[in-house]
Queue: 3 jobs
Job 1
Amino acid sequence: MPVAAPKPSSWIRVEPAGIFVEPGGFHVDPGRAVGWAVVTHGHGDHARPGHDAVLATPETLAIMRARYRGDAGRRQQPLAYGETVRIGEVDVRLMPAGHVLGSAQVVMDYRGSRVVVSGDYKRRPDPTCRPFEPVPCDVFVTEATFGLPVFRHPPAAGEVAKVLESLTLFPERAHVIGAYALGKAQRMIAELRAAGYAEPIFLHGGLVNLCDLYQRHGVDLGPLVPATGAAKADLQGAVVLAPPSAIADRWSRRLPDPVVAMASGWMRVRQRARQRGVELPLIISDHADWDELLATMADVDAPEVWVTHGREEALVIAAASQGRRARALNLVGREEDDAE
Ligand SMILES: [Zn+2]
Ligand SMILES: [Zn+2]
């Protein structure tokens, strides 16, 4: 008789610092500095500075070094997608999550019991990162940023077409697009290139480092030019990318009669677009929408689902209606991914 696999809740639990994997002695995406951290991706609510040791994909470690410099983790252990390493008594594997460059799901096997922590993920094609790969498991830990039926993202190509159309309508005006510095900005550029836009794209200084990093990792973003110091004539009818915080401030008012756009899943909510002074809302998200969340639970076919940051309640109910046990993890320190 085979020995029954241990219940996942007996070896993986939520602590104030985040998800703790007892037989491995490590945390996944801890909200504060710990001894041993496995990190899914480089966004600030998942990758914190100051850990003694960090395990992540080589791309995520590079992003953490770019953001935190000497504070990116005393010891850094890269793990390529699909490779397995044993930490304590737990086999750990990183699989693509399709969220941003280097983003990974953490697959953990312990004595015949498997838990997958998705981190943030999406199922839509993204020219800047490897697509999500479903891994069957006993417990699937899923995000729920857009965990309400009202959130259904349109295809990105249609949103990009709105930018190109506006450029034709307003050839004298700069088109400034607010996009989160890690992931969204590079994806926005790559989607414009995929739609055939070959002109130089101007960058706010806050985006330059991460765009360089993406290009060093083989993501082709085409010709990029710093917006600072560019002649006004060159900015007329040009695409300018900036962090969301810059689109409504003095910085963008220096641009020639700017059309203010913003690329975010939250642009589905008209009121948010208005609050930010956005004239051209672009619904482009790096998070799964409602349909993708439901499809993914079915694809990994986990009998049990734990839901993290976002709108947990609706997804818990939807999981139960698929016949899965589900609960909200209520992690602290996971602020809403507002800009992503
Ligand atoms: Zn993220
Ligand atoms: Zn997140």
Job 2
Amino acid sequence: MKKAPTLTYFLGPQIAERDGGWKCHYCGCDVIYGHQPYLSHEECKRKCHVDHVIPRADGGTDELNNLVLACQTCNLKRGRKPYEAFLQQFRGNSQ
Ligand SMILES: [Zn+2]
């Protein structure tokens, strides 16, 4: 069975416009958006995911202000970690 893409995925272009490009919100890599049938293993890691700042399970919404772009690697790494705690891993020492 084919997995249906989530609706938030289609907000990708609006998020990219708001945030100034197709970048992972966490690690800053260039994400790959859209249907790409032939991705290399490396490219797969940068597949674009739309991540919820506040998870839907915790009452987060599908509103634009609760969504960020994330590469597949970061999205999977985050798992159920809270947004702030996960972001700290990337921004921790820089500011
Ligand atoms: Zn990333």
Job 3
Amino acid sequence: MATPLFHAKLTVQTQSHDYPIIITENSNVSSLESDAEDVVSNSAEKSSMASQIAPYIAGRQVLIVTNETVAPLYLKTLQEELEAQFTVKVCVLPDGEQYKNQTSINQIYDALMAEHFNRDVTLIALGGGVVGDMTGFAAASFMRGVNFIQIPTTLLSQVDSSVGGKTGINHAQGKNMIGAFWQPQMVLADMSTLKTLPARELSAGLAEVIKYALIMDADFLTWLEQHLPAMIAFDLAVLGEAVKRCCQYKADIVAQDERESGVRALLNFGHTFGHVIETHEGYGNWLHGEAVAAGMVQAAELSQKMGWLTSDDVARIKRVLVLANLPITPPAIDVQTALGLMGHDKKVKHGQIRLILLKSLGNAVLTNDFDAELLIEVLSQHH
Ligand SMILES: NC(=O)c1ccc[n+]([C@@H]2O[C@H](COP(=O)([O-])OP(=O)(O)OC[C@H]3O[C@@H](n4cnc5c(N)ncnc54)[C@H](O)[C@@H]3O)[C@@H](O)[C@H]2O)c1
Ligand SMILES: [Zn+2]
């Protein structure tokens, strides 16, 4: 029997179906043998990505969707092993948030049509959140909905975007404006893929990890304070433990509120402020996770002004973010500009800005019941 270094299986319950998240550290990715001895000695018997997803592929047709960066790293082994059992085609998209658009979706449809694939096809998203969101949306819409599987290869996509069924693309006027809820058949988070992830992308993913602690679980915050040094050193077992915890939080939230009519909105903690930074600075200059990190500091500062957090709490949040190599100071943005950008956020309801704030560490609320003057103070603070 294979004895992977890390292995966990969780279940996500949704209205359409329940599906597993398998978190593992055992794929025999060809060019990427681990340097830990126990892994090397087990490498011959490690189960591959293909063998782990195959039981969740219903038909004979498979389209792997990936991008130009991830394909050279992880596509070959997966494709070859699946070919033993399935008709496998590949669609390699350009890399980048700027390609998360209708043109890329059309490329996926074109690949499906060229092969005369039908409703039995399973799409496989091999990549980060951009590939996952687009593959999911193509799966939701092709022939009114076909199966898909997520193989997230960034920390952010492993802890957040691959779970919960939000799929979609950007419109020139706004991020994620076109999309659908469409749940995958399974999620395979293989921690080994993180070995090639740039450190800056790992940190960006850690912002979402820290977010779960701040909104859901103060004990997890303490755990992170102890383990973040190992995590930024790419300790895959520790990262795997964190991914497991985060996926469990997300699975619980999605089971309660799949369509974001309530508790799921709390996952946007730091995002309304972060959205201002991302939009103002231009996508790509600040990574999403970096903007969320600085945004969480602003949300914490407003929570402090509300009398909910102490200055010690806010200092602790900043320290944790710094431990993860994340920024804690937003760029200087004119207050009126910031308020204008906040008004375009999807969380705005009936013209009121609603924010997720912290009542205490590990306890978040969605509220429009805050003093606008205090919000302006927070937005003016850093310049
Ligand atoms: N659906 C949701 O619920 C949800 C939630 C959060 C974010 N998102 C979306 O996710 C996207 C961000 O995802 P992301 O942070 O994964 O970004 P990403 O998909 O752009 O990946 C970041 C970079 O890392 C590269 N990469 C991916 N895996 C790699 C690996 N193993 N080794 C080396 N390089 C690798 C990618 O090619 C890319 O250049 C955004 O579009 C955002 O809107 C969706
Ligand atoms: Zn996010």
